[in-house]
Amino acid sequence: MTFPLEGGCFCGAIRYAVKAEPLGRGICHCRSCQRIAGAESVGWAVNDIANFEFTYGEPARFASTPGVERTFCPRCGTGLTYQRQSTSIDVTLASLDDPEALPAKNEVWCEERISWNALNPDLNHHAQWST
Predict the structure, then answer these.
(1) What is the pLDDT of residues 67-94, one digit of tens each?
(2) Would you say residue 131 has pLDDT above 70?
(3) How far apart are CA 106 and CA 45, in angstroms?
(4) Residue 101's domain spans which residues?
(5) In this structure, is residue 130 part of a structural domain?
(6) CATH code (residue 72)
């Protein structure tokens, strides 16, 4: 795989680059991700903040829970990132131009999974966070 990997929102108003191999990749089943995305789960790539940048446009920012900021396109609404007060930033896997480039390795917050959303038996499963 060659970096940077690029991605962006549905309408093209926001673009970003992932400049190096992510620290982790997974599918989150937590209730917060379900509600914010309006979907049963969300795929994320966890990146060192130094290896991620918005390259075009300015996303809107939303403090979804204490200590957590999410970004999205202010024009089309595409969810883009999740960031705790840390040195890492998660980017939605499906917003990559080539989502197949970074397949998920884990499923997290499985204890909050919606029952009709089956777990992938080929991935590692964690009741809450992965390590």
Answers:
(1) 899 999 999 999 999 998 788 999 999 9
(2) no
(3) 11
(4) 5-125
(5) no
(6) 2.170.150.70
